Amino acid sequence: MQHLVIARAPGWSFDPGLYEILVLVGGLVILAGAVALSLQKGRPFSAALIYLSVGVLAGIALRVLGVRWYDPIEDAVLFSRAAELAVIVSLFGAGVKLDRPLTWRAWRTTVLLLAIAMPITIAGVALLGSWLLALALPSAVLLGAVLAPTDPVLAEDVQVGGPMQLEPEDEARFAITSEAGLNDGLAFPFVMLALFGYTAGFDAIGTWWLEWLTADFAYAIGAGIVIGALAGRLVASLTYNVIDRGWLANPFDAFVAIGAIFAVYGGTEIVGGYGFLAVFAAGVAFRRFEQGHEINERLHDVTLVIEKLGELSVLLLLGSVLPIAGVLEVGWPVLLVGLGLVLVVRPLAVMIALLPSGLALRQRLFVAWFGIRGIGSIYYLGFAFATLTPVDARPLFSVTAVAILVSVLLHGLSSGPLSARLSAADATTGRDATTAAS
After folding, report:
1. Chain centroid offset of residue 266 CA
2. Who's near 312: CB < 8 A, 6+ residues apart?
3. Burial of 384 (0-12, 13-18, 19+ CB in 10 A)
4. Residue 252 burial by CB count (10 A; 0-12/13-18/19+): exposed, middle or buried?
5. Are 389 and 139 within 8 A, CB to CB?
6. Nearest CA to 62 among 321, 299, 267, 278?
7. Are the CB atoms for 163 and 300 separated by under 8 Å?
8. What is the pLDDT of residue 434?
9. What is the C-alpha radius of gyration for the chain, rounded to an integer number of angstroms?
């Protein structure tokens, strides 16, 4: 059989007809994605499960045809950048959904999840990695940091609704939305800590600890939040002024803000801040500038479409590499770490963190269960692979891929039924409270 080859950098080269085949398949996949999104509502599966399945089938077909596809470790930049774009848009969209006042009482649950549940999750996964996979300490810490964030893209199905929703924000869904918006950026310092461990060694005597605390932790987090908040208000002010003057027609006004998202992200990264935190903070600030403006709904709709296209692209890429020989190393230790994260570490960390939250048990269980792993983990993995050797990188990729597969399967199958049960229970509780008060 004559082997078709997709060449890597500096450019792509195709045998005659292959480009057209890829365009055809791409079009069919987008159509399938649209159908999947339309059918998933109220049914026990998610579109992400279909995307991954189609990706796996595509990977099998590529292997049968002899097509040399990309390697997620050698070509990690492609993987990482595709995930990065999807997360950027999703984080801004998550911020636009939230309209709570910026007070401790309103955001207490979120703070508990970030300050307690996230470090416990990092430590728990690191312990599993070192125990079951015999990972060195830097690799174990990196694995914990990569798998700690709740994904803002795949978690969209269990987040709060759009800006114009009539019902009040549900506390459990608010917690998941705000946590996903912030912990993708807050995972970065721990990723950098692990990379310091690779280059300097945790036991090395030097100033790298001080550099990490000041530059990668305090400054980068602070800069991301401050720049994002200020930029969000500025973008909102400019956008509303342009609309009020009639200079921009509906629905193109929403795309102005989308362009500003990437400008905020790029500018924050240039000055050493965390762009993920900046775009989420910008989304929150944009929404709070004029909460009732109809552009918030259009902006939410536009970001949702772009987010879903990004989700489709990244999960197809992930699924397509899984059947390629030598990419995925799956054994009992890998499976146990992936299952341990989803079934034990995340739920236990959240239940501990939310003990003082005052949430009902059903709400705490809902938040604990839906710690969905996905696109953000892929981005961090690709980012870290620039420093790691293939020997160090391959087991981390295997565990991350298995954790995402487990999460997409279990959370995808349970999101519809459990969301409906939570809404019904909350509605019943609300009616009972109203009856008792009267």
Report:
1. 18
2. 29, 30, 33, 47, 51
3. buried
4. exposed
5. no
6. 321
7. yes
8. 34
9. 22
**What are the C-alpha distances in Å from 397 to residues 252, 330, 385?**
40, 10, 9
Please report, as a single letter, which amino acid is at residue 259.
G
Report which residue type is found at 285: A
User: Could you say which DSSP state residue 3 is in?
Assistant: P
Q: Hey, what are 76's tokens?
A: 């990690």
| Cα 109 to chain centroid, rounded | 19
176 token code pair: 């998941």
Instruction: Say if CB 319 and CB 271 are below 8 A apart.
Output: no
C-beta of residue 320 within 8 angstroms of C-beta of residue 56:
yes
- Map out the domains of the chain as residue ranges: 76-411
Cα 107 from chain centre: 20
Structure tokens at 241: 């002024």
Pull the structure tokens for residue 192. 């950098």
Give whole-number Cα distances, 144 to 73, 96, 330, 333, 432, in Å. 19, 29, 18, 15, 42
Closest CA to 133 of 398, 333, 329, 332: 333
Q: What percent of the chain has pLDDT over 70?
A: 77
The reply to whether CATH 1.20.1530.20 applies to domain 76-411 is yes
DSSP three-state, residue 68: strand
Angle (CA) 185-191-193 rounded to 5° is 120
Give the up-direction half-sphere exposure of residue 399: CA atoms within 13 A in the CB hemisphere.
Answer: 32
Q: What is the pLDDT of residues 119-170, one digit of tens each?
A: 999 999 999 999 999 999 999 999 999 999 988 777 666 777 655 554 556 8
Assigned token pair, 420: 């409906």
pTM of the full predicted structure? Answer: 0.85
Residue position matching structure tokens 């961090």: 380
Q: Which residue has the tokens 């990729």?
A: 397
Q: How far apart are the C-alpha atoms of 57 and 185, rounded to whole Å?
A: 33
